[in-house]
Amino acid sequence: MRHEVIVIGAGMVGTSVAWHLQKNNAEVLLIDKKLPGSETSYGNAGLIQREAIHTHPFPRQLTEMIRVLPNQGTDIRYRIPAILRYHQALLQYWKYSTPASVKKIEGEWQTLIEHCTSEHQTMISASGADELITRDGWLQLHRSEDTFKEAVALAIDARNQGVEHNVLTVAELKVMEPSANFDEFVGAIHWLNSWQVSNPSLLVKAYAKNFQEMGGIIKETGVQEIVQEDGGWKVITDTDTFYSDKLVIAAGPWSNDLIKPLGYDLPLFPMRGYHQHFKVNEKNTIHHSMFDMDKGFVMGPMQQGIRITTGAEMTTMNAPKNFGQLKTVLKLARKILPLEDAVESEAWAGSRPCMPDMKPVIGSANKHEKLWFAFGHSHQGFTLGPMTGRLVEEMIHEKPLLVNIEPFSADRFSK
Ligand SMILES: Cc1cc2nc3c(=O)[nH]c(=O)nc-3n(C[C@H](O)[C@H](O)[C@H](O)COP(=O)(O)OP(=O)(O)OC[C@H]3O[C@@H](n4cnc5c(N)ncnc54)[C@H](O)[C@@H]3O)c2cc1C
C-alpha cells in the first residue's frame, strides 16, 4: 500500500503534523519507534507557553560566562565531549546571540508563539483532552530584587503582544500556594494566559487517538533508512517497508540521523534535561507550576506527583545520565515544598532539539522533492507542535500560510 504522506516521529510535533494533514483529507501514516509522546514530549515541564516571546541566547556577557564556567550551576551544565562534538553549532549559536540578532530572531519567533494556545485549543477540543489542561497560568519565582525588577519590566512590555501577567508579592504568593515556603524569594510573576498540562505524554496520546479516529494509521517501529524512489519515498523500518508520495521528518533530536544520509547536515544539537516525580501529601501540595528563575528549574503538579524538571545539560545524545544537576536542584526544591518519596527509582532524561539561531526548522527540503522538515523547537516544542502541524499542512497542500514561513526555512543555513 502506498500512503499519501508518511510522518516520522510521534512526539508533539510529528503527531500534530499528522493530525492536521489527516484532518485536511490526506491519508497519513505516522511512524515512531515508541508509542506517541514517549520521548522529549513525555518528559517536559508541561507548559504551553504563551508568555515565551523571548528566546534562550548563548551567554555573551563576561560575568555570565564566568558564572557558567565552573560547571556547578543548576540552570546550565556542560560536558567537554559535547562541546567538541557540537563546537560548530555552538559557535553559530554564540554568533546568533548578539542583542541585534536576538531582536530580529525574537520578532520571527513571536509570529509562532502568538498562536500557540489557540492552535492547541483546536486540537484539545477535537480530542476531548480538556481535563488535562489547567488555564490558570504559572509562577515565575525570583530570589533577587535585580532579576525581579528586570523581569517585571519585560512583562510590562510583553503586554503589547497579548501576554498577560500579575506581579505578586511574597504575601500574595503565600495566599496562592499556602503549602509552599517562599522565604528565599522576593516576589513572582504570574503568567496568566499560559497553560499547564497535567500529563504531557497523555496530551500527545489524545491527539494521536483523535488522528486515528479520523482514519490515520500509526505504526510502532524504528525507521532505519529513507530512500527516494518512483517520485515518492520508501521508508525502511525494523519490521516493514512503507511507501508514500510525501514524507515529513519530525523526529525531534534524532532528525539529523535520518536526513544525513540524504546529504543534509543541519546544525541541530541536543540540550538534555532531567525530571523525577515526588509524592506529596494532598494537603501539602502546589497547584501551579513554579519556575525558579534564578536557579533555572521547574516544579509542577502532574498526575504522577510533583515533577521536578532541571535546566539544560549540554551533552551528547547517548552519554550516560549524570544526576548532579538534579541532586542540587532537589535540595532547593525541598526547601520550597516537603517532597516525600520519589515515584521512579531513576530520573528520566531527554533532549531538547536545538538550533543555533533558536528557531525551529519548518519547511520543505532543498535537495529533494516532496520532503518536509519539522524539528528543532528546542525549549518550546511542546508549546509549538500544533502551530507547526498547521503550517506543514498548509505548505504541503499549497494553501495560504498563517505566518511568513521564510525565517524557519530548512535551507537558511546553506545560504
Ligand atoms: C526538561 C525539559 C523540559 C521542557 N519543558 C517544556 C515546556 O514546559 N514547554 C514546552 O513547550 N517545551 C518544553 N520542553 C521542550 C519540548 O519538550 C521539546 O521541544 C518537544 O518535546 C520536542 O518535540 P518533538 O516532537 O520535536 O520531539 P520528540 O518528542 O522527542 O519526538 C520525536 C520522536 O521521534 C521518534 N523517532 C526518532 N528517531 C526515530 C526513528 N529512527 N524511527 C522511529 N521514530 C523515531 C522518537 O521516538 C520520538 O517519539 C522541555 C524539554 C525538556 C527536555
TrEMBL record:
SUPFAM superfamilies tied to this protein: FAD-linked reductases, C-terminal domain (SSF54373), FAD/NAD(P)-binding domain (SSF51905)
EC number(s) on file: 1.4.3.3
Record-linked InterPro entries: FAD-dep_OxRdtase, FAD/NAD-bd_sf
Superkingdom of the organism of origin: Bacteria
Residues forming coiled coils: none
GO molecular function: D-amino-acid oxidase activity
Cellular compartments per GO CC: cytoplasm
Protein name listed in UniProt: Possible D-amino acid oxidase
Source organism per UniProt: Psychrobacter arcticus (strain DSM 17307 / VKM B-2377 / 273-4)
